[in-house]
Amino acid sequence: MTNKEDNTGKDKFEKLAGEYLTFYLDEEEYGIEILKVIEIIGLQEITPVPKTPEYVKGVLNLRGIIHPIIDLKQRFSMGEIEPTKETCIIIVVIEKGETNEQMGIIVDKVHEVKDIDGEVIDEAPDLGTQFDSEFILGMAKEDDSVTILLDIEKILSKKEVEELSQISDNS
Amino acid sequence: MSIQDVIEELSENIVMVDGDDKHGLGDLHNSFENLVNKLDNKKLIFIAENVTEAIEGLILDEHEKPDEIIDQVGQVISGFQRVLIENKNIDSVEFPQQFAPQETETEEANSQIELPNNVDEEVFGEYLSKQESSLQKLEELLIEVENTDSDDDWRDIKSILHTMKGEAAMVGLDEIEHKCHGAEDIIEQSDPKEQIDDLFDLKDWLEDTFKSFIKGGEESASTEKNKNIDSSQERDTSSSSEEELEKEEEEERREIDEPALVEDFLEEAQEHIETLDQELLQVEDEPTDSQSLNSLFRAFHSMKGVAGFLNLEDIQNLSHAAEDLLDSARKEKIVLETQTIDIIFDAVDKIKELMKALKTGLEEGLYPTSDPNVQSLIDTIRKLNEKALQGKTPDLSDKKSTQKKQKSKKEAQPSKTSSKGGGKVNKPKVEVKETIKIKADKLDRMIDMIGEFVIAESMVSQAEQIRNIQSLKLEKKLNRLDKISRELQDIALSLRMVPVKSTFNKMARLVRDLSKKSGKPINFELEGKDTELDKSVVEEIGDPLVHLLRNAVDHGIEPPEEREKAGKEREGTICLRAYHKSGKVYIEVEDDGQGLDAEAIAEEAVEKGVIDSAEGMSKEEKWNLIFRPGFSTNTEVTDVSGRGVGMDVVRKNIESLRGAIKISSEQGKGSKFTIKLPLTLSVIDGIVMGIGKERFITPTLTVITSLQPRREKISTVTNKGEVLQHQDEMIPIFRLGQFFDIENKKEDLTQGIITIVESDGKKIGLFADELLDKDQIVIKSLSKDLKDVSGIAGGTIMPDGNVALILDIGGLVQFAGSTGKQKEKINASS
């Protein structure tokens, strides 16, 4: 266990070490902490929810619970996902205050489960104000590939949630 | 009469008595009671008390072999003779095992393992059932720690022991408490692993002890094995000052360390408070109701125990004082008077206050400061107790009459008193009742899964392929499956249902207080306490009921003088009742007060600007004005109610529970507020509409009618807004497809269906392609991130397994009514 007060740069990434599920959006490889992943399912019929941001594809019933489904590519403004045989939905769990919520993210292709060392993790490069790096935990460099480690909790970031609730406040 | 005289008298009487001689037994009983008061040796008191109980049992014919008991009582008396008259050493004298406390060789003669005599069997059973799992955990941890020696595990072990210690203290098992404490001290040492064998021994001993309790035997489990632990504790705390120091340290640490325990306590205490309020009301009516007195005593007792364990001195001391008072009452030494009961009510209120302070303190991680008023309250209680005790001299004839009363009561209500007598004399058969506390979200998850199962089942049995199989056997099996799944669904629905009792009982207390405060005597009737409702509804219904009852007392019931003038009884009657009718739950608050004056309400409403004119309004509509915001008929703002916000809130609360409230009233005779509630919050009746490929659900409650409009009924306003003429009303048409950006299959209004819905008195017509179905819909939340989507209230899972969205009619009606500019803004922001 690392000490709470010891928060120097290296240790921050040391904490990120562990197993990640990696997947592709276009050619880029992304990773999410394996413990956040509930399961991976194939693309299914999704009920659209009107009046939501474009990247919210809708909702899906999975064993009695309604899951919001997010197109991760649209979330990152990379264009819409074109369904192929390899397209799938990763069901993840998100801690929201005291309760856990589940949601699904649509990705182009699931790759593998990788054990990532703390040493290879680096901070996300500063790409200027245009780029929202809030949901990036770090970048893992291995051989010649780079895996972008995502902070799944922040994918539906606060800003968006506020926007959503504003819509209903006005109505 | 000296002790010696009493004993002499006893030894004479016992020879004469037999099991059928009720009179003789009564005398014997009184003599023993007399003896208990005179004795000062704890062991002898214990025995004498047990014997008293046994004789009581004899009088009530509870023993199968009365002669055997009398025989043993005789032995006890001769034992007493030897100790008290011949001055023999108490330990050298043998008493019948049945009555005697178990022997120990240590000085602490009172810490034997005996069933604590003032603990209720039920409480004790619960205690035992808890210990079993604690022990199991303890053993697992011990085995693990033997290998790992990890600090975390030691801490866990310590916390288990600590909890056990506290629980043992609560039920009065001093020795277990003591030993667990000793074991805790071992772990405190630098190298606890050295003594792990002692801990294992302790665990075994505890297991044996608990087992013997469950068997109902009182054989003292050997204390041999645990000498080590005792002695090691002594080694640790060789000097008393050191011990004190350590104790203090421990207390300090507790304050920060165990918020979870305090939280548990608060939760538990809340239940006790509810019991207290309820039983106090009962005792107020019938001060000698032994069952109520017992449960009062028990509630205070358990609170005292846990509060003491958590160092909550105020609560502990207050509970203790109240417990003593009630102990006297339940032993029929005193009779509670109204004044005394009021004081107990005060004590309960004070505890509530203290708990509130504790709750706030919990958030900061600190105990609240001691309340200076507590001590005076404690003093009052103690004084009352003493005064009452002195005031009543033991009166034999009176005693007998109470006994007779008890007996007749027993005959009348065998179930009520049977648990009371004899419990300690017969080897108590402790029934370990197993209950499992489940987290609500786990339960919800299960209910979800059952719902899902039912859907899956219907999907399978309705599948075309299966229906094509022409087989009687298969059909039979499918029918069976169908039946099971239906039953499962029923069970699932019932899981969350609880009786309204808890909320209703709180109301009884409220009305009592209100009645005292306002000086209006009120007879409060509760009906249908066992009516079941979804748990969340039961909790939520409290607030509106408080408002309604306050209004009933404050505005409804007239002062006694006025009531007399009007030819009514001085005492007002308020009735709170709950019942089921056609799949809904009704809760009514009815009073026989002055009733609602429709005209006065209307005038007031106009005056306050709530409405422009009351012309043409029916009586009901005028009554309903009191639910409008900013309305109050009582010009005087009292402590109790009447700021004019209450009823507005009542209606909002009830509507948020998807219920409705109705008034009926007759001037001079009284009024009745009827609340209609759905059985659960999670199931509604809904109409399924189709728009394009999508399905939307409208709660049936909001729907007025559905129709396919004729061309001539539709007109357009400035070529934009469309209006439907329906029964002399102009209803704006709302194209759902347009709003939700979905392509309608039918653009022509006359081809589709218009569903007229109402919210807040405004109507709109929702235009959809078609009506698909009418069904019971299980509401599910659309996850937190999507819950604020405009126009959508939630989702549900359709029989095909896909999700359909439930419309938020209130939101849509509001939107349709907003101006163009607002609409643009809303549309722009999405």
Q: Care to describe what's here?
A:
The complex is a heterodimer of chains A (171) and B (830). With 171 residues, chain A is mainly beta. Chain A has a single domain (9-153), classed as OB fold (Dihydrolipoamide Acetyltransferase, E2P) (Beta Barrel). Chain A is built from three helices and eleven strands; from the N terminus they run H-E-E-E-E-E-H-E-E-E-E-E-E-H. Chain A has a six-stranded mixed beta sheet, with no helix packed on it. Chain A has a five-stranded mixed beta sheet with strand order 3-6-7-5-4. The longest helix of chain A has 13 residues, at 158-170. In chain A, 36% of the residues are buried. The model of chain A is unreliable at 1-7 and 164-171 (pLDDT under 50). Chain B is α+β, with helices and mostly antiparallel strands and 830 residues long. Chain B folds into six domains: 3-111; 123-236, Four Helix Bundle (Hemerythrin (Met), subunit A); 259-392, Four Helix Bundle (Hemerythrin (Met), subunit A), CATH 1.20.120; 440-496, Orthogonal Bundle (Helix Hairpins), CATH 1.10.287; 498-678, Heat Shock Protein 90 (2-Layer Sandwich), CATH 3.30.565; 683-829, Beta Barrel (OB fold (Dihydrolipoamide Acetyltransferase, E2P)), CATH 2.40.50.180. Chain B has 31 helices and 18 strands. In chain B, strand 11 and strand 12 form a beta hairpin. In chain B, helix 2 (22-38) packs antiparallel against helix 3 (42-59) and helix 13 packs parallel to helix 15 (372-391). Chain B is globular. Mean pLDDT of chain B is 74; it is low at 103-113, 217-256, 393-429, 635-644 and 825-830. Classes of the chains: A mainly beta (171), B alpha+beta (830).
